[in-house]
Amino acid sequence: MILHDLGKFAGYIPDWLIGIVLLFTTAALALAVFQLVRTMLRRFLEARHPILHTLMQRAESLLRFAVVLLAVTLIVPALPFGTNTSETLHRILIASFVILLGWIAIEASNLAADRYMRRFRLDADDNLLARKAVTQMHVLKRTASVVIGFLTLGFALMTFDAVREYGVSIFASAGVAGIALGLAAKPLLGNLIAGVQIAITQPIRIDDAVIINGEFGRIEEFTSTYVVVKLWDWRRMIVPLGYFLENPFQNWTRTSAAILGTVFFHLDYSAPIAVLRAKLEEFAKESPNWNGDVVNMQVTDSTERTIQVRVLLSARNASLSSNLQSEIREKMLAFLQEEHPYALPRMRAEIAGNTIATLSNGGAKATRSRPGKGH
Questions:
Q1: pTM of the shown model
Q2: Which among 175, 196, 217 is the end of a domain?
Q3: Whole-angstrom Cα distance, residue 227 to residue 238?
Q4: Are residues 98 and 145 in the same domain?
Q5: With the CA atoms of 288, 292, 312 and 202 taken in that order, what torsion angle do they form, in degrees rounded to the nearest 10?
Q6: Dist. CA 285–CA 322, nearest whole Å
């Protein structure tokens, strides 16, 4: 009696509603089976095959989509849909399959790029080769993802007749719409092309030390359209890729990470340059920041009051060079204050007749002295 009533009630339900319910039920069952299998495989692979476990984690969303698509594709022919509905579902499944292929291509390219980049270490002292390879892979990976994404979307939409005919009509037109679209997409396309040019010519690389508009920082990240520069005070500067091809900038690590640092001192004319030069070499040899190549002291300028002394010091990279400059500056000033205080800039007074001329770094001041006895 109950089965008879259920059959009678089912006769009032439209076929399309039954088909939709079965479709969603199949998708839900496929997801449940996937979750069960994933849990079992995770425990097995995590203990015995860590590499496969990592790959499965990376491709989890992709595998879930593939399982649901396979289950729905198998159940569609048995669903009580009409001809038009079945044809529409067939086209949707084809478009989903195209999207799945594009997704697989993007994930495969990303995995290949990441696996290649793991061979290089950016934390090494001389990391020029690593920065070259990592920069190329970052830019090419982003560019490949964008190109594959556009192609996948285009092929997926072309599976529908209305979209395909609309696309053909646009391409067969006089080309005005194409020109307008090209002008509208010029910033995006320009930055994409600039990214490819930067990956090939490499005016900048990951972890390069650069100065842009007076700001010092390091190249932290490449995207498909812009570069993130981490400034010295941890701010981030966002720079379009095209900027590096159209504007001048400083790259301190273009060919090597080694760099010269400069320290200036303004001293009195009586400063013992030979003694200071020897002490500088002693301080440099004691410092772990010095790379052992260049240490030099020269008098580069002189004024009516002081002389300018320039110190050159080499270091393995810009960060060590900055630390070395501060270290040498502090030690040399302490040495001058303790051993040769007379070498620091000082004020002089010259007596000429009844006039006292006071000379200092800030200027000269003339005062008339009082007449004393015998005047």
A1: 0.52
A2: 196
A3: 6
A4: yes
A5: -90
A6: 16
Q: Name the pairing type of β-strands 209-212 and 215-222.
A: antiparallel
Torsion angle of alpha carbons 206, 208, 209, 213, nearest 10°? -70
| Structural domain includes residue 2 | no
Query: Is residue 224 in some structural domain?
Result: yes
- In terms of domains, do 104 and 73 share one? yes
The predicted structure's pLDDT at residue 5: 47
Residue pointed to by tokens 């070499």? 281
* Closest by CA position to 100, among listed 146, 152, 151: 152
| pLDDT tens per residue, range 27-85 | 888 888 888 887 777 777 666 766 666 666 777 777 788 888 878 877 777 777 766 77
Q: 203, 228 in Cβ contact below 8 A?
A: no
Nearest to 318 by CA among 162, 208, 215, 239: 208
Q: Return d(Cα 296, Cα 247) in angstroms, integer.
A: 34
- Whole-angstrom distance, CA of residue 213 vs CA of residue 249: 8
The tokens 């701010």 sit on which residue? 235
- Rounded CA Rg of the chain: 37
Give the neighbor-by-neighbor strand order of the sheet with 348-352.
348-352, 355-360, 363-368
Per-residue pLDDT tens digits for 254-273 = 877 788 999 999 999 999 99
Q: 48-57, 60-69, 167-176, 351-360: which has the minimum mean pLDDT?
A: 167-176
Query: pLDDT band at residue 222, thresholds of 50, 70 and 90?
Result: confident
